[in-house]
Design brief:
Number of domains: 1
Radius of gyration: 16 Å
Oligomer: single chain
Helix content: 10-25%
CATH superfamily: Periplasmic binding protein-like II
Strand content: 25-35%
Number of strands: 7
Order of helices and strands: EEEHEHEHEE
CATH architecture: 3-Layer(aba) Sandwich
Shape: globular
Length: 125
C-alpha cells in the first residue's frame, strides 16, 4: 500500500513530479461586520493574505494604501476576527455568502472583486 499526498492552495504546482487540478474559482469579496463600512483602508481593515497573486492585485488596485494594522493568513480565522471586532476584509464568497444573506456580514459596495483558482496538487506517480 502506498501513501497519497495532496495539497490544496491557490498556486498550481508545476513539474514532472506533480499534477494540479482546478477545484474551483474562489471569488474574493470585501465584507464588513458593520453595515456602514466604506471601501477605504482605515483601522477597521484586516488584510487577509490569499497568496502572491492576490498580493500583487491588491497592491496594484490600492497603490496608496498603508499596511493594514492586522494581517491574517487564513480565511476562517479572519472571518472569526471580523465578526468579533466589527472589521472588514477580503474573504471567499463561498465562505461568507450565508452570513451576507443572513445580514451578519455586509458586502462593501464599490470594492473590487478578485478571483483565485483553488487547486489540488498531488504526486504524479
Amino acid at each position: 500500500m502506498g501513501l497519497i499526498d495532496i495539497a490544496f492552495g491557490y498556486v498550481p504546482h508545476a513539474g514532472e513530479e506533480y499534477t494540479s487540478r482546478l477545484l474551483l474559482e474562489d471569488e474574493l469579496i470585501l465584507v464588513s461586520a458593520s453595515g456602514d463600512q466604506s471601501a477605504a483602508f482605515d483601522s477597521a481593515y484586516v488584510y487577509v493574505d490569499h497568496g502572491d497573486r492576490f498580493r500583487r492585485q491588491h497592491a496594484e488596485a490600492f497603490p496608496e494604501a498603508r499596511p493594514a494594522p492586522v494581517t491574517i493568513a487564513a480565511s476562517d480565522w479572519a472571518l472569526e476576527y471580523l465578526l468579533r471586532t466589527d472589521s472588514k476584509g477580503y474573504l471567499p464568497s463561498r465562505l461568507v455568502g450565508p452570513l451576507v444573506t443572513g445580514g451578519r456580514l455586509h458586502r462593501v459596495e464599490g470594492a473590487p472583486t478578485w478571483y483565485e483558482a483553488a487547486v489540488a496538487a498531488s504526486s504524479a506517480r
